[in-house]
């Protein structure tokens, strides 16, 4: 019977799972609201790219810093405090919009302010969720959490588009603020094992030694390249969906649907990805396939005719398939294969890689759009991503061939 239990059989995991689902929905509502509003008042794709960079930029310092904080503070208390801090900036954005016009300057400041506790909290929350289930269920827990993240990407983004059109951006910001309070209350009620809850400084040794050890793993090196390519050249498209929608004659509701389609693609990929064992070298092939699908998705967004939302949705869906393969494979590698004494800080470095490349990529794609228009931007990035996919596939084949000989 024990083998038939899944992560949702454990009450602690169910509570965290539900709270983070609500919070994720709120975050996607805010993404749709903020990016649409920024493009509406500036009519500039680079301005949207700057907004995305400000939302993600603190992760370049905050994610590894959050991993470092795990060495000195109680895990549960740290997560509760940072979740409450995350609630303040979106609440302020809602208040400013209700009482007066929200300028792009205020939005930049408050989005950046909210990104600081968010990035610090990523490693803590990533450590808490797998620890609420037994060791043999942790990869399933990571995959399931990613699945619900993508469900909320679909429904949160779609709902956000309707909310913006019918109730305004302030309502989306207010919901997001409330969702962080739900996470804080849920984590505060958890009873983690003493070895998990205590500061990890007692277990941590030199980070440089950890990096050398982890970098010696071929799967880690390959995964780092795949993650960097995807999150630099593909993931920022999610933040630039208002540009896609406006270029193709669509409304705010369409932005929500396009972002949601990424979630649908990730959901379709989730059950397939969960079947791969953590040590299976063929995961490298999965990552290469993900990059290839992303390249096809970018081409779809580039060639879509005016009002061709169905082709846009298909392109976004393919990007979602790729997103899941890169992110879940990378996070699972850290959560399962990295030794416990390195895991907290290495989880921070993983999120550093994701956020830094996405932030830089958002600005890069925004500038490329202003220089060569949207279609040529997506075609150029598709060519680069496809090249990376082929190289990764060849590398994976070279690693597998000796075993089959």
How would you portray this structure in words?
With 405 residues, this protein is mostly helical. It has one domain (7-404): MFS general substrate transporter like domains (Growth Hormone, Chain: A, Up-down Bundle). Helix content is 82%, strand content 0%. Helix 4 packs antiparallel against helix 7 (169-188), helix 6 (138-167) packs antiparallel against helix 7 and helix 13 (283-303) packs across helix 15 (340-404).
Mind sketching the topology for me?
Elements: H1 11-42, H2 45-56, H3 59-69, H4 75-99, H5 104-131, H6 138-167, H7 169-188, H8 194-197, H9 207-215, H10 218-233, H11 241-247, H12 252-273, H13 283-303, H14 309-337, H15 340-404
Care to give the gist of this entry?
The chain has helices spanning about 10-40, 45-55, 60-70, 75-100, 105-130, 140-165, 170-190, 195, 205-215, 220-235, 240-245, 250-275, 285-305, 310-335, 340-405.
Radius of gyration: 20 Å
- The CATH top-level class label: Mainly Alpha
* Unreliably modeled segments: 200-205
Residues in β-strands, percent: under 5%
Q: How many domains, as an integer? A: 1
Classification by helices and strands: mainly alpha
Judging from the principal axes of the Cα atoms, what is the shape?
globular
CATH topology: Growth Hormone, Chain: A
Distance N to C terminus: 39 Å
Q: Give the number of DSSP strands.
A: 0
- Number of helical stretches of at least 4 residues: 15
Largest β sheet strand count, sense and barrel closure: none
**What is the helix/strand order?**
HHHHHHHHHHHHHHH
